[in-house]
Design a protein that fits this description.
The protein has 650 residues and is an alpha/beta fold. It has a domain of 126 residues: 2-Layer Sandwich (GMP Synthetase, Chain A, domain 3). Helices cover 31% and strands 23% of the residues. A 7-stranded mixed beta sheet has the order 7-6-19-18-20-21-22, sandwiched between helices. A hairpin with a 5-residue loop joins strand 26 and strand 27. Helix 4 packs across helix 5, helix 5 crosses helix 6 and helix 7 crosses helix 8. It starts with a strand and ends with a helix. The relative contact order is 0.10. The structure holds adenosine-5'-monophosphate-propyl ester. Adenosine-5'-monophosphate-propyl ester binds next to helix 11, strand 22, strand 26 and strand 27.
């Protein structure tokens, strides 16, 4: 069952893991033939396929047209009306799921709370009324800067209920990063908490909001959930306690009937410029694809306890902690804190105590667990697990094998899921009862998803030939635009390759048709599964008074996938030293957040540039990785700069 079957292949990776017969027999999709048949049908008629999936949602009014495509602008289920909150809550209340646990929450200090669908519904209705009481109307934007507590999901669902568009800001972002997002989104109200717990310490969220607010002129009110009880400043008239408003709120709040294309949320993500992009997702298509993929990729069944470890501040948390699972009536486990608090076995302890069945996490976490050692895992009975998933970056075969053996005990299928903030939902993944898996590949596109690997001019690549990963046909959960900037949307995603959505990733396809993601081909780096634009780090650095010019590149890192390496030239002959390095790290943390702190900083007299003045990033990447610089360097403005960079290494 668990032993790999070696196959003839030109690739290094020849281990193939077919699903076990037991798993396949009970799965939604039971064989590879069944997947291929479904795929072929959907390929011949993608609209028909997705219309069928949309039928599993509750619509107030059915759509007239499945897809309206004016490249590059898509509208799905045109003319239809529905409500995401209704689909995640109300419709379960007329079934036995009314008393089923929707969210089982564990705080880092150890508290536990369970909210049934009925209880979650009641909280969402009340908070929707609280928002209305604060003058939040359909179409307004609300920012959520919260720890991982059920109230974050409650606030999202309450926004969805009244047609307000939420923008969740990850709790690790700094005051400046918050202000950028809040202003770009013209946010009217912020929901936050006094603090949250992370690795035994308190993250003081409200203080950070206080620091952002002087630069956010449109914000009228702040609602503060009391999580830690720490002393905070409450500005009278502007700041309100969550519990006080909730105590006074009406309990009934009918879900608004919203257009299928009504904006559900904006989520900011890094790109190749210094300014993050507000990725806009809408209602009907988004929920159709997140609900469908949650059910099929995780082979979800009603009795499962499902745990996606992502923070809701990232897209994975939106689609696979909140919307996809709740639309399916699933039981979602939600954990507030760090995997090593109070000890290195916290995850396995949680899995044992709650009898978790499905675990969805990031390769970087798996590599950290490998480093901590399997003894922490072996202390616990984690035999309840039946399916494992990964997301966010390519998984190296070593981490895959460890996940398979140590966590999955050789019996759990692994779904390596490829997708992006922009795609909204999973695009490439094994179907666990059907697809034989190979460590390191997300395998095949899901039914209804039409992808290709092409050259710059759009010519399809041959087997095992590297190229650009593109979508050939719109998909329901695709981004609709970059918020407030249609031109940027066109330019970023639809101009590089003719008539194709270009995802930013390089990939190759092997002779089985399996997709191997090779990583980003643009100036975006993936640090611990989080996307960062090198331009963002650079603009943070040059905003420091000592810095004249900066270049940031990614370099391979065993645990984080990529680490951030920066090259800095200083103003007016200033000399760099350790103290300045620390100052620059702190400065970047202040400008963006701790997640963007450079791992290595090198001071240099000049940056290597082409004759046209472009920074030669490839060379910098090679220096950062410690490799010898290869290739044609004759266009270097000053060859000696490179040598100097090498000499100046930390
Ligand atoms: O490079 C790909 C990588 O993560 C990028 C998307 O990042 P983000 O929008 O933050 O969303 C992450 C969670 C969906 C992609 O362009 N990526 C994501 N999943 C995989 C992956 N690379 C390889 N394999 C994956 N399974």
């Amino acid at each position: 069952m668990s032993d790999p079957i070696a196959i003839e292949s030109v690739l290094n990776e020849t281990r193939v893991f077919p699903p076990s017969q037991e798993f396949s027999a009970n799965a939604h999709i039971k064989s590879f033939e069944e997947y291929e048949k479904l795929y072929a049908e959907a390929e011949a008629d993608p609209e028909g396929f997705w219309a069928k999936q949309a039928e599993s949602l509750d619509w107030f009014k059915k759509w007239d047209t499945v897809l309206e495509w004016n490249e590059p602008f898509a509208k799905w289920f045109v003319g239809g009306t529905l409500n995401v909150s209704y689909n995640c809550l109300d419709r379960h209340l007329t079934t036995w799921r009314r008393n089923k646990a929707a969210i089982i929450w564990e705080g880092e200090p150890g508290e536990q709370r369970t909210l049934t669908y009925q209880q979650l519904y009641a909280e969402v209705c009340k908070f929707a009324n609280v928002l209305k009481g604060q003058n939040v109307k359909k179409g307004d934007r609300v920012a959520l800067y919260m720890p991982m507590v059920p109230e974050l999901a409650i606030a999202m669902l309450a926004c969805a209920r009244i047609g307000a568009t939420h923008t969740v800001i990850f709790g690790g972002f700094s005051a400046d990063a918050i202000a950028d997002r809040v202003n770009d989104g013209k946010v009217k109200l912020i929901v936050t908490a006094d603090g949250g717990y992370r690795r035994g310490a308190e993250v003081t969220l409200k203080n950070t909001i206080d620091n952002a607010l002087p630069n956010c002129p449109n914000v009228e009110a702040v609602i503060v959930f009391k999580r830690t009880g720490t002393k905070i400043n409450m500005s009278s008239g502007r700041d309100h306690w969550w519990h006080e408003l909730m105590a006074a709120a009406e309990t009934e709040c009918p879900a608004e009937e919203l257009d299928s294309e009504h904006p559900l949320y904006i989520l900011y993500t890094s790109g190749t410029t210094g300014k993050p992009k507000g990725i806009l997702h809408t209602t009907g298509g988004y929920l159709t694809q997140t609900a469908y993929t949650t059910k099929m990729v995780f082979d979800l069944r009603d009795e499962d306890i499902y745990w996606c470890t992502a923070d809701i501040g990232w897209v994975t948390g939106h689609s696979y902690v909140v919307y996809g699972p709740l639309a399916n009536g699933a039981t979602v486990l939600m954990y507030e804190g760090a995997p090593n608090y109070p000890d290195y076995d916290r995850f396995w302890d949680i899995i044992e105590r709650h009898r978790v069945n499905i675990l969805y996490t990031a390769p970087t976490a798996i590599r950290v667990f490998i480093r901590w050692g399997e003894s922490h895992v072996l202390k616990h009975d984690i035999s309840s697990l039946r399916l494992l998933g990964t997301v966010g970056e390519p998984i190296n075969p070593e981490a895959w094998m460890w996940y398979h053996h140590v966590i999955g005990k050789g019996k759990c299928p692994i779904v390596d899921t490829w997708w992006q903030t922009e795609t909204g939902a999973i695009m490439i993944s094994p179907l666990p009862g059907a697809t034989p898996t190979v460590p390191g590949t997300a395998t095949r596109p899901l039914p209804g998803i039409l992808l290709d690997i092409v050259s710059k001019s759009g010519e399809p690549a041959g087997d095992n030939e590297g190229g650009y990963l593109v979508a050939k046909h719109p998909w329901p959960s695709m981004l609709r635009t970059v918020y407030g900037d249609d031109e940027r949307y066109k330019k970023t995603y639809w101009s590089e390759i003719p008539n194709r959505y270009f995802a930013g990733d390089g990939a190759r396809r092997d002779e089985r048709g399996y997709y191997w993601i090779m990583g980003r081909v643009d100036d975006v780096i993936n640090v611990s599964g989080h996307r960062l634009g090198t331009a963002e780090v650079e603009s943070a650095l040059v905003s420091h008074e000592a810095v004249a010019e900066a270049a940031a590149v990614g370099r391979p890192d065993e645990v984080k996938g990529q680490a951030i390496s920066v090259f800095v030239t200083l103003e007016g002959g200033r000399k760099g030293d350790e103290a300045l390095k620390n100052e620059l790290r702190a400065h970047v943390a202040k400008e963006i957040g701790a997640l963007a702190k450079p791992d290595d900083i090198r001071f240099t007299d000049a940056l290597p540039k082409t004759r046209s003045g472009k920074i030669m990033r490839r060379l910098l990447r090679e220096v950062a990785a410690g490799a010898d610089v290869a290739g044609d360097v004759t266009t270097l403005e000053d060859l000696s700069v490179l040598e100097k960079l090498r000499d100046d290494e930390d």
